Amino acid sequence: MEAFGQQIILGSVAVYLVLCIAIGVWAMGRTKSASDFFVAGRSLGPAVVGLAIFSSTMSGFGFVGGPGLVYSTGISSLWMCLTSPLGFALGFYLVAKRIRIMAEVRDTLSLPDIVAARYDSEAARLLMAITIILGVMGYLATQILAMAIVLKVLLGGTAMFADISLITCALVSTSVLLFYSVTGGIIASVYTDLIQGAVMIIAGALVFITAISVFDGGMQEASSILFADDPETIMPFGTAGAITCIGWFFMFGVGLAGQPHVITKMMMNKNISDNRTILPLSVLGYVMAALLWVSVGLIMRSVVVAGMEDPLTAPDQAAAAFLTVFAHPLLAGVVFAGLFAAIMSTADSFLNIGAAAMIHDIPIAIRGRPLNNELLMARWATVGLCVLAIAFALYSYYINNRLVALLGAFGWGTFAAAIVPVVMLGLNWQRATKQAAVAAVTSSLLINFIVEISAINIPYGMPGGFLALVASMIIFIVVSLLTPEAVLKPDIRAAMEI
Question: pTM for the whole thing?
Fold first, then answer.
């Protein structure tokens, strides 16, 4: 079987890509309206929603970018992944129930719909829609780049495709993504998540066992190798430094409750009481998958330092290289297929919320009503967003030289800084005002994009997203206290008091 390892891995991925196309065709038959396309008709069960939330949170950011970041900076990124259960808890206790109730009483299709209803402000809706489109570019580019890198590693190991380019891999994988996103909308995404989430919970544990078996002494021997080479690698803050890690802890812990692809899925469950099942299922799935994030990155760095393998040409190749070299072909094939599932379902989620912002929220904010034939326009908007994102992904890789994880952190930070104050705080604090919502979103966008575009190096390695999140929360609270308290509509007040 080992002799056919590469064929088994490629076959598993090929089967998955065909499955994606089949799911897209099946979901197209169930997608009859814009509500089906954007929020699956709010009719999903707890297992589907729970696995969809966990897998879309992990995605290519965690499965490709996570090991790559560990390979390059040591255990610094533990401060990203280990804090995420805190983010799930905040999201479900402070956001999920109220946002689901508001979705029911106002028949909403998107997060900007919720924001507009809470603050009775079309300006807040418009700014939230713009934030989603801008953040989607960074995070969607992360998914596309992750798919391309993994596919290049896989095909590069064959004689026929040894010289295949990253651009070709990006085009091939994105074509499949685009087909199943355009045809099936969010329904295709969440049912892919159901399969992929179950697979990755099991595979995460098996990959962890494989990783600690690479050295006879397990992780202890790997840690000794890394300590002898560079002690900072396995120190609590890794090589990134304390301020960077603490910034990641806050940005990813609190910021998870501000991710629109997570919040939107909180609107899809059939019953509010399902949250009691969805929360622990999401946390369990994430923790099991995070085992892959940490163990693969450390082991790959250890085997390179020990001279057992050549240095990687790019840190983001760590996961693919580990699975190809050390994992059993069947396990590698399953994980690679699951990896593509995670990336594509998350990318579909971002295409979906971006399309909703373009053809539903911005038109309502500007002219008071959505575009005609929303379902058709949503599919065309999905195509446009995908083209822009693939261009941004390739630019970031070739021109700006960004790692997948850092590109994902930019998208994450953009969402967190704009959405956490307005949604997480705003849905639990009746004193919050629409002026504060507008000020918080505007300030967060300005800080994030000035830091990113100007390539400003903040002292002590502080992440730009962390700075923007802290600033926007302070601005939100201060402006709310300085502006007149608004009279909430009866249904919104009732939803906030439950």
Answer: 0.80
